[in-house]
Amino acid sequence: MRRRPGIGGLQTAAAARDQYRLLGENVAKLRTDLMKEQLSTFRSQLEDFARKHKNDIRKNPAFRSQFHEMCAKVGVDPLASNKGFWAELLGIGDFYYELGVQIVDICLATRAHNGGLIKLEELCKILCQRRKGAREAVSEDDCLRAISKLKVLGSGFEVISVGKRKLVRSVPTELNKDHNEILEMAQAQGFVTVEEVERRLSWSSGRAIDALETLLDEGLAMIDDGHRDGRRRYWFPCVSSISSYVGAETI
Amino acid sequence: MQKLGEFKLPHFFNYPPYFTLQPVRDTREKQIQLWKELILDYCRTQKLFVIELEKDFPLFTNPTIERSLTHEAKDAFLSALVSDGRAEWMDKSHRKCLILWHRIQDWAELVLRYVRENGLEDSVMTVEEIRLGTESRGTELHGMDRTILMRALKLLEHKGKLAIFKGTSTDDEGVKFSLQ
């Protein structure tokens, strides 16, 4: 005999659904708890690690850079806030803010010479000279990190790559592809001539002169008419070390 | 670092474009500033008082990088010193320039100090004695330029610290201090 649907059957089905739901919730809760536990273990391990290697992190630039890499992989940014655990434990936030301020200082002091473009190497070198008294050594990686923190100020601090070199830009000049190519060329000797630019890049003379004039106006280039061959040279203080030496003396 | 005798040259001296007057205003201002400091520094340490533009001047040529300042550039740097009150053209055609690494009033101060230190407050001296006498040996006054010294003395005369008079027996001028 076929059973007709009745209230009993419906109730049984509803009860079963409830059971399943409860079970599911339990499983999910268990999993989250486990996850939370793992995370907190991980965090405390990371903290232990940081505490244990505090001095290495503060003093050894290579170690510091590896520590940053590790933090980035697990989604922790020790620089995200100056307050809180990381800053208190490592004082790492202050360190980078201090670097940031000094970097701004150096960029301003050398701007008259290099037009607001400076080699990362040079910047780092001057920074180290200025910080001679401080205990911690500073690497190029630290400079890059400090500069990336300056971006929030919207002040136009930026790291650009020209050829193999990294340059730090502190003026809002837009360098286009032509300018970049000229700067890259200038890295070889420190200067270029109109003829060289035309020949090596196969540009029309108008294009070369135009790009060079812009670089001149921006204060990134200086002319030199003193060579025996009578050809005007365009020098780029930002790609030769001399620029920052000049600046470093006035700091 | 490159040296001129005992004088340490700044790094920019080896960077060729600093020997060409820059066309862009900001860059040129910085260039002029660096040259002004260098010229004053050099003249102070070498005790030079006059720069003649048409004669060789070691600071205006760098044989290492084969660069020399053009006449126009020299004129621009010295004129900038003139407008700062740290130099004076000695002729209208800008051929000779008097370099005042001490301003006239600073030279006058040095004269006063010299007078006090040597107890000459109310004595009489000739101008040449001040410049070349034994008392001034070892001080900055020794061997100083006569034109500048006369200017400093005239300033002091104006302030009533001394009187300048024409000597009777010699061509030299005399100075009567009256500091008390």
TrEMBL record, chain A:
An example Gene Ontology biological process: protein transport to vacuole involved in ubiquitin-dependent protein catabolic process via the multivesicular body sorting pathway
Keywords: Protein transport, Transport
GO CC terms in record: ESCRT II complex
InterPro entries documented for this protein: ESCRT-2_cplx_Snf8, Snf8/Vps36, WH-like_DNA-bd_sf, WH_DNA-bd_sf
One Pfam family from the record: EAP30
Role this protein plays: Component of the endosomal sorting complex required for transport II (ESCRT-II), which is required for multivesicular body (MVB) formation and sorting of endosomal cargo proteins into MVBs.
Quaternary structure and partners: Component of the endosomal sorting complex required for transport II (ESCRT-II).
Family recorded in the similarity comment: Belongs to the SNF8 family.
Name of the protein in its database record: Vacuolar protein sorting-associated protein
Organism: Daucus carota subsp. sativus (Carrot)
TrEMBL record, chain B:
Gene Ontology terms, MF aspect: protein homodimerization activity; structural molecule activity
Protein name, as recorded: ESCRT-II complex subunit VPS25
Organism taxonomic ancestry: Eukaryota, Viridiplantae, Streptophyta, Embryophyta, Tracheophyta
InterPro entries linked to this entry: ESCRT-II_cplx_Vps25-sub (IPR008570), ESCRT-II_cplx_Vps25-sub_N (IPR014041), WH-like_DNA-bd_sf (IPR036388), WH_DNA-bd_sf (IPR036390)
Keyword Transport in annotation: yes
SUPFAM superfamilies, alphabetized: Winged helix' DNA-binding domain
Domain of life, per lineage: Eukaryota
Any single Gene Ontology cellular-component annotation: ESCRT II complex
Family according to the record: Belongs to the VPS25 family.
UniProt keywords, alphabetically: Protein transport, Transport
Organism name: Daucus carota subsp. sativus (Carrot)
GO biological process, one term: protein transport to vacuole involved in ubiquitin-dependent protein catabolic process via the multivesicular body sorting pathway
Pfam family, one: ESCRT-II
